[in-house]
Amino acid sequence: MRLIEVTVHDAPRTMPARRPRRWPQGGAALLNAQPSDAVNAVQRVLRNGPMPTGQHALLRALYEAGQAGLTGPELAAQLDRDEYQLGRLLARLGRRVRQTPGAAILQRPGITLMLDVTPVEGQWRYKLRGAVRQALDAQQPEQQ
Questions:
Q1: Would the N or C end of the chain have less CB density within 10 A of its end CB?
Q2: Per-residue pLDDT tens for 12-43?
Q3: Is 114 within 8 Å of 104 (Cβ atoms)?
Q4: What is the pLDDT averaged over residues 120-132?
Q5: CA–CA separation, 144 vs 141, rounded Å?
């Protein structure tokens, strides 16, 4: 076995440091965000290509649940999935938000742009944010 010695001075040349990830609008973007900015960001996410059926069903279920929202197991049962599949569905929704140009009004965009996620009695409770409800209401006449 061959042993390779690396000193502190050699390390930067042989092992490049990982760069910090930069988000499109920086860390202070949320401080200056207006409610209309959130609605515009959500509309961009909803219009960024065809909405997969799972994500559409997720938004519909949470829209119908109203302000009470649904816990993780309730939401998974309503979507006819298990909790692991629900987690993957939420991850894909977060990826959709992150990959939508101009939707990053938060420092780290993800499902928190679309959903209010809070712990309640050892489970996560999911609710639609007001901006999402407004954007979905605005889309209703277009779809009919």
A1: N
A2: 554 555 555 444 443 334 434 555 677 888 88
A3: no
A4: 92
A5: 5
Map out the domains of the chain as residue ranges: 51-144
Does pLDDT of 128 surpass 90?
A: yes
Distance, CA of 113 to CA of 128 (rounded, Å): 9
pTM (two decimals): 0.71
pLDDT at 93: 94
Q: Give the pLDDT score at 107.
A: 56
Of 28, 48, 58, 61, nearest in space to 103 by CA: 48
- Three-state secondary structure of the chain: CCCCCCCCCCHHHHCCCCCCCCCCCCHHHCCCCCHHHHHHHHHHHHHCCCCCHHHHHHHHHHHHHHHHCEEHHHHHHHCCCCHHHHHHHHHHHHHHHHCCCCCCCCCCCCHHHCEEEEEECCEEEEEECHHHHHHHHHHHHHHC
Residues 6 or more apart in contact with residue 113 via CB below 8 angstroms: 38, 41, 42, 45, 97, 103, 105, 106, 129, 131
Considering the domain delimited by 51-144, tell me its CATH architecture.
Orthogonal Bundle (1.10)
Length of the chain counted residue by residue: 144
